[in-house]
Amino acid sequence: MSVADRSADWLAQAVRDLEQARSSQAEQRHEWACFAAQQTAEKAAKALSRRSSMPVRSSTSSVLRWPDRGSVVTALEAWAAREAPRHAGLLRLGYFGSYARGDWGVGSDVDLIAIIEGAADPFERRALDWDLLDLPVPAEIVVYTREEWERLRSEGGRFALTIERETVWLAWPILPPGA
C-alpha cells in the first residue's frame, strides 16, 4: 500500500465526515457538526497533499506496518511536551477515541482535544495553530475555550460525555483531570 493509496482512503473518509457534518447541522447538533467538518477538512488536506509520516515500510520488506499503541502514545507525550508551551492559555490537552480506549487498529487516527482560556479565532480555525505533522498516525484536534467546554459539559451531550469518559490527559497546566 502506498501513501497514494492511503490518500484515496482519506478522501473517502472526508466525504463520510462531510455527510456526518451536514446531518449533524440539520439536527442542530452543532458541536458534532463542527467536529465532523474539521475532520473533513483535515482528511481532505491529507489526501491532497499526500504528506504523512505513516505507515512505515520495513527496510527488509515491502509490507507496511502501522505504529503500535505504545509508539503512538510515546509520540503523543513527546508532542504534548513540545506543543503545550507554544499555546498561551492552554488549560488541558489530551487524546480520546480508539487510542485512548485501546481498540485502535491499522488506519486508526488519533483524536486530540485542547481546552484553552479564550480565543479570537472561530472554532473551525483553531486547529490550524497546532502542528500535527510529526505524529506517527493521522491526527485531528478540536480546540474549545473554557466557556465552550463548560457549556458542553453542562448540557451533558454525548460528545462531552465521551470526552469525559475516554480522554487521556497529557497536559493540564491549570485544570486538574476531571475539572
What does the model show?
This protein is of the alpha+beta class. The protein has seven helices and six strands, in the order ααββαβαβαβααβ. A four-stranded mixed beta sheet has the order 5-4-3-6, sandwiched between helices. A two-stranded antiparallel sheet has the order 1-2. α1 packs antiparallel against α2 (30-49).
Q: Can I get a quick summary?
A:
This protein is of the alpha+beta class and 179 residues long.
| Order of helical and strand elements | HHEEHEHEHEHHE
CATH architecture of the largest domain: 2-Layer Sandwich
CATH superfamily of the largest domain: Beta Polymerase, domain 2
Helix content: 40-55%
Strand content: 15-25%
Assign an overall shape.
globular
Number of helices: 7
| CATH third-level topology of the largest domain | Beta Polymerase, domain 2
pLDDT < 50 runs, ≥5 residues:
50-54
Briefly, what CATH class of the largest domain? Alpha Beta
Distance between the termini: 43 Å
Radius of gyration: 16 Å
| Number of structurally distinct domains | 2
Give a short account of the largest sheet: 4 strands, mixed
Task: Describe the protein's topology.
Layout: H1 3-26, H2 30-49, E1 56-57, E2 64-65, H3 69-83, E3 90-96, H4 98-101, E4 110-116, H5 123-126, E5 139-145, H6 146-155, H7 158-166, E6 168-171
Parallel strand pairs: 4-5
Antiparallel strand pairs: 1-2, 3-4, 3-6
